[in-house]
Structures are given as structure tokens and as C-alpha cells.
């Protein structure tokens, strides 16, 4: 279903905007005919986006799936998005980049407003100070980015989109075993359930690397 919809959105932005008006959940009902198929798609959606199908922008779901090749790749462990973890946690990426940037990184600097005019862009902080430049790249998650004050105001379609990209509310838990005992029974450790507390358990190998310094 997603492959078809992604190829349709490639036809142009008009279709993409129209399809986004339909709720993601409505697409599940329209395109998946069996209750089991719908239930499985919802479990996959929570596993990938950490959000319910009814909470997601369809356009965002399609963009995200396409960016990660396809849904199959996003949920797969073997050669998929669930295969690798970063030793020391993904915070290591930000910490190492910050170390390279040195004093240019300003911590505890809350942004309130972003203004743009013919001379460039200004970012106004909560303490009243401002940083200016020719461009600004906003890396906040969309919902938080939507809370900033923009001058001039962002287009209404952007405002609508950031209201439909909620952060998820799942809890992830890791269990470490001495050995993958389930393989002796011919099981790969993957499961999906539409009920209970553990909806999509999967397995990854134990870390073999060392944290980068
Ligand atoms: C439930 C859940 C589970 C996830 N599981 C995984 C996973 O298993 N693997 C994986 O790779 N990814 C996972 N993700 C995604 C991953 O957590 C996010 O993609 C990642 O944290 C995003 O990083 P970020 O820097 O964009 O945003 P964040 O980590 O949210 O950082 C945003 C920062 O901006 C700060 N901020 C907010 N407002 C302002 C402001 N006005 N001015 C200045 N600073 C501000 C916040 O304090 C925060 O420090 C998960 C996400 C969720 C919600």
C-alpha cells in the first residue's frame, strides 16, 4: 500500500497535499481489507513511528517510509533499520559534533522567535539577545518547532503539518540474555501483537564496538 501511495505522491505536490487531508487511519480502512491486516499495520506504525496511525500525518508517514527505503526495511533487523545501535547511545553523535564546534555551541539558549527580512534571519532568545545570519536551520522536532514565533508567519499548510507530527509515547525496554536460546527452537525472536504491553519485540546482537572518544 505504501509503495503505491509513495509513487502517487511522486506525481506532484497537489496530490500529496490532498492525500494529507485524509487521516492516516482512513487509509488503513480503505486499503487494508482484513481485520488482521489492519491490526498488523497499526502495530508496525507504532513500532516505526512510536505513534498511533490516527495521530500521524499521512504525508509524513509516506515521506518517512520512503526516506528509509520502505516499511519493510524500517521494521527489519537483518539489514534493516533495527539492526544497529550506537555504542554509548545516539547522544554520542551530538556530543562529538559539539566537541568539534567548541565555543560556537551555546547551551541553555532557549529560542523564542525567528524573524526574516531582506537583510537576513534573526533568532531571538528568551533572554532577549539575538543571533543573526543569512539562513537558519531549525532542528527541533516538528511539534516543538511549531511552537516558535515566526515573523513572517509560516504558511498555514506548514502550521497544520507541525500539529500532526506528535512525538510518540512508547517505552522501550532492553533485555540481555547470555545467548539467543530461542534460535534452538527455530525462532528468530521477532513478534507482533495488537494487545498486551509488549507489541513488537525484536532482537539485536550484543554491542561489539567501543564508544568513540
Ligand atoms: C518514544 C520514542 C522512541 C524512540 N526510539 C528511537 C530509537 O529506538 N532509535 C532511534 O534512533 N530513535 C528513536 N526515536 C527518535 C529519536 O529519539 C529522535 O529522532 C531524536 O531524539 C531526535 O533528536 P532531536 O535532536 O531532533 O530532538 P530532541 O532529542 O527532542 O531534542 C530537541 C532539543 O531541543 C530543545 N528545545 C526545545 N525547544 C527549544 C527552544 N525553543 N529553544 C532551544 N532548544 C529547545 C529540547 O530541550 C531538546 O533538548 C524515538 C522517539 C520517540 C519519541
Question: Care to describe what's here?
Answer:
This protein is of the alpha+beta class. 36% of the residues lie in helices and 9% in strands. Strands 3-2-1-4 form a 4-stranded mixed beta sheet, with no helix packed on it. A hairpin with a 4-residue loop joins strand 2 and strand 3. Helix 1 (2-9) crosses helix 5. Bound molecules: flavin-adenine dinucleotide. Residues 50, 90, 110-111, 139-141, 144, 167-168, 170, 172 line the site of flavin-adenine dinucleotide.
Secondary structure: elements and pairs:
Elements: H1 2-9, H2 13-21, H3 24-31, H4 35-49, H5 58-67, H6 71-75, H7 91-101, E1 111-117, E2 120-125, E3 130-133, H8 142-145, E4 149-151, H9 156-162
Parallel strand pairs: 1-4
Antiparallel strand pairs: 1-2, 2-3
Helix pairs in contact: 1-5
This protein binds flavin-adenine dinucleotide.
Flavin-adenine dinucleotide binds at residues 50, 90, 110-111, 139-141, 144, 167-168, 170, 172.
Can you give keywords for this protein?
single chain, alpha+beta, four-stranded mixed sheet, 36% helix, binds flavin-adenine dinucleotide
Task: Give a quick rundown of the structure.
By secondary structure, this protein is α+β, with helices and mostly antiparallel strands.
Estimate the helix proportion, in percent: 25-40%
Distance between the termini: 43 Å
Number of helices: 9
The number of strands is 4
- Write out the strand line-up for the largest beta sheet, numbering strands in chain order: 3-2-1-4
User: Per DSSP, what share of the residues sits in E-state strands of 2 or more residues?
Assistant: 5-15%
Described by strand count, sense and barrel closure, the largest sheet is:
4 strands, mixed
Give the CA-based shape. flat
The computed structural class is alpha+beta
Mean pLDDT: 84
Amino acid at each position: 500500500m505504501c509503495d503505491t501511495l509513495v509513487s502517487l505522491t511522486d506525481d506532484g505536490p497537489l496530490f500529496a497535499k490532498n492525500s494529507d487531508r485524509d487521516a492516516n487511519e482512513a487509509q488503513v480502512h480503505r486499503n487494508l481489507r482484513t481485520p488482521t491486516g489492519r491490526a498488523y499495520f497499526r502495530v508496525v506504525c507504532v513500532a516505526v513511528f512510536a505513534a498511533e496511525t490516527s495521530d500521524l500525518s499521512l504525508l509524513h508517514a509516506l515521506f518517512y517510509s520512503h526516506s528509509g527505503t520502505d516499511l519493510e526495511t524500517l521494521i527489519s533487523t537483518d539489514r534493516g533499520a533495527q539492526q544497529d545501535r550506537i555504542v554509548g547511545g545516539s547522544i554520542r553523535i551530538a556530543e562529538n559534533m559539539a566537541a568539534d564546534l567548541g565555543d560556537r555551541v551555546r547551551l541553555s539558549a532557549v529560542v523564542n522567535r525567528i524573524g526574516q527580512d531582506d537583510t537576513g534571519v534573526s533568532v531571538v532568545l528568551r533572554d532577549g539577545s539575538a543571533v543573526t545570519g543569512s539562513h537558519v536551520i531549525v532542528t527541533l522536532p516538528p511539534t516543538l518547532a511549531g511552537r516558535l514565533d515566526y515573523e513572517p508567519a509560516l504558511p498555514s499548510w506548514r502550521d497544520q503539518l507541525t500539529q500532526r507530527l506528535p512525538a510518540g509515547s512508547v517505552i522501550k525496554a532492553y533485555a540481555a540474555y547470555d545467548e539467543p536460546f530461542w534460535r534452538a527452537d527455530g525462532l528468530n525472536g521477532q513478534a507482533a501483537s495488537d494487545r498486551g504491553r509488549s507489541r513488537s519485540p525484536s532482537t539485536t546482537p550484543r554491542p561489539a564496538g567501543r564508544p568513540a572518544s
